[in-house]
TrEMBL record, chain B:
It comes from Bosea vaviloviae. This is ABC transporter substrate-binding protein. Coiled coil: none annotated. Belongs to the leucine-binding protein family. InterPro entries: BCAA_transport, Leu-bd, Peripla_BP_I, TAT_signal.
């Protein structure tokens, strides 16, 4: 029983970490209609921007997160406007492939700037809190709180701000939105800024728990993609649900199958989902 | 600006000239052509901290040899590629070295997974391969002699890990490793050593691409180990150490020297990694070749892989010299003549070796990584190990044995 509970808790923690970049991925997909695999490098860029803010400039976690969000958002917009934007008319597959290439380029720019070695945030490591047999890390709780706060902010933004409403309008029906006077180009920029920024923040949250290197984002790309597909591509609540489901599935699977197959759980989840419900848990459109 | 117009006459003329060229005897073309040697080291990925220094060592030797007139009167050319510590990228790079650059030998493949993938390309194309990988399976490949390694086998290493854990008073030893070609053999040999002393072992193979291993750690702790052996590389071992610290593990921690290195120690809080022991094949510190290498690369204590690849380039260049031919086959047939000639002059650099070979002396090279004597299948026959411990953020030497 403790075993199950512990795995469940661990899964929630992992899921909450994956949820943040998954929201970014899903938001970009909803508005621009292509899967942007460059979010792996955005996560890495965010992790390094925050590392710089924290370990070099000596800032605490929350300002470092804000810096990571801003830097990654700007990088994402610049990358989008200079390289991916022109390809959008050629269909989602072309842009998706280009985003993989973009990912490699950005990853290697990080290598040029920061080198190839591991870096760790300048934060004390706390022992786990124990509740009877269960272990919970203070750091995990903090990351969980941060990702819940970020998700809440995202929901409020989408629901109550003009840009948020416009984004949802474009996601629902781009042509109608255009007729109503919403400029899709501007919305695209805002979306990419948000999506990339969120991926960057996700990278930081993952880095807080572990250490960072130029492959930090790439390692979680599959999990993020799986979470988005599972929840329904283009659905923001779906991304959250998908991430939590995937996190829990991965941890629970460890009880039954050898740990080597952990990543395979993500693949299997995508496979089952696409077979029986191609639009995902909360997806509305079968795209 | 001249316009390039291709009419039939010039095209035919060109074609005829080409045909004429290829009809010339091959020898005439090869005379004075440079000898090409490739390095295939990890410049990125988990081996990234080692690759650049390895290339630097090889380049230093090549420059030195070229300055003294090259080998067989030919210049030595170095082509360096990055295997990204990834078998797929390694194969791509090896193909380029073999097919495009036509190198005689490839030096320095580091990860066992990369070496396993690259080795068949080498023996099929008769390119000689020198590696620093430790997995037992590598020399068991049907490489027909086109492969030597300077890293002791996992069998030997696993036994040392097990014996060390026992010597430190451990009875329940847990082996924690990602999926590597040497994980199984490492665990089997640890188990053999520990069981002999009446202890127990268990193992867990994890997926090394995860941001956290809390559930894995739970499984480890259920075994109630008093020692944990880490079989992974730097990034995943760092995460494991952190998660073990969080879970309050207070037992003995033993890892490979290449995974718990200065980089890892700097990237985690001091208390996470403090008191961890590291075991690594020891370079022949204090040997003449080692001293020469220190001067060449300007680093006080070069890592084991740099010492090994330094030996690779020296051995290969001398083998070419004694064979009088730079083909991979010539290197294969002659490498043991200069690494372990009975009663040969003790040589510690290619520079001296080339002179001795020119003077028709027998040569026995003793390198920076050790004596460099190879068995029939290309394994190293003897090696020392270095035992180190992290003590308040610094790596302290415990013993070399």
């Amino acid at each position: 029983m403790t075993l199950l509970l512990q795995a469940l808790i661990n899964g929630l923690m992992t899921g909450a970490l994956i949820a943040v970049p998954a929201i970014g991925f899903s938001a970009i997909f909803a508005v621009l209609r292509y899967p942007n695999f460059a979010i792996a490098s955005y996560a890495t860029i965010g992790a390094f921007a925050a590392w710089w803010a924290n370990a070099v400039a000596g800032l605490p976690v929350v300002p470092a997160l804000a810096i990571a969000f801003a830097v990654t958002g700007v990088v994402g917009v610049v990358a989008e406007e200079t390289s991916l934007k022109r390809l959008r008319d050629n269909g989602a597959l072309i842009v998706a492939i280009a985003s993989i290439a973009l990912n490699l380029v950005l990853e290697n720019i990080i290598r040029f700037i920061f080198g190839n070695d591991m870096k760790g945030y300048d934060l004390p490591l706390a022992r786990d809190l124990r509740f009877g047999e269960l272990r919970i890390g203070p750091q995990q709780l903090q990351s969980l709180a941060l990702s819940v706060a970020i998700m809440a902010a995202m929901f409020l933004f989408l629901r109550y701000t003009r840009f948020g409403k416009a984004m949802r309008a474009v996601a629902d029906n781009p042509d109608l939105a255009r007729l109503k006077g919403i400029d899709p180009a501007r919305i695209a920029i805002v979306t990419v800024f948000l999506g990339a920024g969120l991926s960057g923040v996700g990278g930081v949250l993952i880095g807080l728990d572990t250490s960072i290197d130029p492959l930090t984002g790439y390692r979680v790309l599959l999990s993020v993609f799986a979470a988005a597909v599972l929840g329904g591509l283009g659905s923001i609540p779906g991304a959250v649900v998908g991430a939590l489901a995937l996190g829990i599935a991965e941890e629970l699977a460890l009880i039954a199958v050898p740990a080597t197959y952990r990543t395979a759980v993500g693949f299997v989840a995508i496979l089952i989902m696409l077979t029986f419900r191609p639009r995902g848990i909360l997806g509305e459109r079968a795209t | 600006m001249t316009e390039f117009l291709t009419d039939r006459r010039t095209l035919l003329g060109g074609a005829a000239a080409l045909a004429g060229l290829s009809a010339l005897p091959k020898l005439a073309l090869a005379q004075g052509a440079p000898i090409r040697i490739g390095t295939l080291t990890p410049l990125t990925g988990s081996g990234g901290p080692y690759g650049p220094m390895m290339v630097k060592a090889v380049k230093a030797v090549v420059d030195e040899v070229n300055a003294a007139g090259g080998v067989l009167g030919r210049k030595v050319e170095l082509v360096s590629e990055d295997d990204q510590t990834n078998p797929e990228a390694g194969v791509r790079a090896a193909r380029k070295l073999i097919d495009v650059d036509k190198v005689s030998a490839i030096l320095g493949t580091w990860a066992s997974s990369v070496t396993t993938a690259v080795a068949p390309l080498c023996w099929e194309s008769k390119t000689f391969l020198c590696t620093t990988s430790g997995a037992d399976s590598i020399t068991a490949l049907p490489h027909q002699g086109y492969l030597i390694r300077t890293q002791p086998t996992t069998t030997l290493q696993g036994r040392k890990f097990g014996e060390f854990a026992i010597a430190q008073g451990a009875k329940r030893v847990f082996f924690l490793s990602p999926q590597t070609p040497f994980a199984k053999s490492q665990f089997d040999n640890i188990t053999e050593a520990v069981k002999k002393a009446g202890g127990e072992t268990a193992s867990l193979i994890y997926d090394d691409k995860k941001p956290a291993y809390r559930t894995e750690i739970d499984e480890v702790l259920r075994f109630k180990p008093d020692a944990i052996v880490f079989g992974g590389y730097t990034p995943d071992t760092a995460v494991m150490l952190k998660d073990l610290y969080r879970a309050d593990f207070k037992g003995l921690k033993i890892a490979f020297g290449y995974s718990v290195n200065q980089k890892l120690i700097e990237s985690v809080p001091a208390e996470v990694v403090d008191k961890t022991f590291m075991i690594s094949p020891s370079p022949a510190e204090g040997s003449k070749a080692y001293e020469k290498l220190v001067k060449l690369v300007g680093v006080a204590s070069p890592d084991p892989y740099t010492t090994q690849i330094y030996d690779h380039i020296n051995l290969v260049l001398m083998a070419i010299a004694i064979a009088g031919d730079a083909s991979g086959t010539a290197i294969k047939d002659n490498i043991r003549k200069i690494s372990q000639a009975p009663g040969g002059a003790k040589i510690d650099s290619a520079l001296d070796g080339l002179k001795a070979i020119a003077a028709k002396q027998a040569v026995d090279y003793d390198g920076a990584s050790g004596p460099c004597d190879f068995t029939e299948i290309g394994d190293i026959s003897d090696s020392k190990f270095r035992y180190e411990q992290v003590q308040s953020g610094k790596i302290a030497l415990v013993k070399i044995a």
